[in-house]
Amino acid sequence: MDSLCSSHCLDRSALIEASTKGTKAFNAIEVLLKGFECELPLGISFHSKDGNPRTAVRVQLWKQNASKLAEVVLHIGLDIGGAAEALIPLNVPRYSSSQSPCFIGHYWLKGEPSPLASNVACLDYSAAKQGKRVAYRWDGEQKLTQSKFTYAAKKAE
User: Fold this and answer.
1) What does the mean pLDDT of the chain come to?
2) Could you give the strand order of the β-sheet that contains 124-125, starting from the edge strand earlier in sequence?
3) Which helix (H) or strand (E) holds 38?
4) pLDDT band at 1; cut points 50, 70, 90
5) With pLDDT > 90 as the criterion, what percentage of the chain qualifies?
6) φ and ψ at residue 58, rounded to 5 degrees
7) What is the structure's pLDDT at 103?
8) What pLDDT does 155 receive?
9) Those residues with Cβ within 8 angstroms of residue 62's Cβ, 6 or more apart along the chain or in another chain
10) What is the Cα–Cα distance from 20 to 45, expressed in whole angstroms?
11) Which pLDDT belongs to residue 4?
12) Is 63 helix (H, G, I), strand (E, B) or coil?
């Protein structure tokens, strides 16, 4: 995005490109906001929790030792049929444990907040659906710990 936004600000033309499906800027923002998605093999699909048919899955980029699609698919335990045994496509990026800590969202996790990897933490625990509002007290450490998560559970109305 630096080539699009040399001033590190979205000007009018960059904003238009970032809002246009199929452009490099649009794809970069999609991954930044939602995580990387991998297309399933032709003919394989599943239904989202809302009942919508899906032909792509969000992947856990931090799973360094994984080789099969079932090992990296989110949500964990999702039935992707025959695609489960497929090798992870080469275009799926990997987030190494030596990289800086990364805080992600848009994953709608449940349960007790904890690191997904030594340097990856999700802060989205379904607050919009009566889940937890999660934060992490980061002090510059490379290795994230469960004890630094804090949250407030949303009260039922």
Assistant:
1) 88
2) 124-125, 132-136, 149-153
3) strand 37-39
4) very low
5) 49
6) -75, 145
7) 92
8) 65
9) 94, 95, 97, 102, 116, 117, 119, 120
10) 25
11) 61
12) coil
Cα 156 to its chain centre, rounded Å, is 27
- According to DSSP H, which parts of the chain are helical? 12-18, 24-34, 69-72
Question: Letter for the amino acid at 28?
Answer: A
Torsion of CA 104, 109, 133, 31, to 10 degrees: 30
**DSSP string over 75-102:** STT---GGGGGSBPPTTS----TTSPPE
**Domain residue spans of the chain:** 6-35, 39-94, 102-153
| Beta-strand relationship, 102-104 and 73-74 | unpaired
Q: Could you tell me which of 89, 37, 35 has the C-alpha nearest to residue 67?
A: 89
Q: How far apart are CA 73 and CA 76, in angstroms?
A: 6
> For residue 3, what are the β-bridge partners?
none
**Rg (Cα) of the chain, in Å, rounded?**
17
Q: Identify the pLDDT of residue 99.
A: 96
Q: Each residue of 59-104: pLDDT tens digit?
A: 999 998 999 999 999 877 888 888 899 999 999 999 999 999 999 8
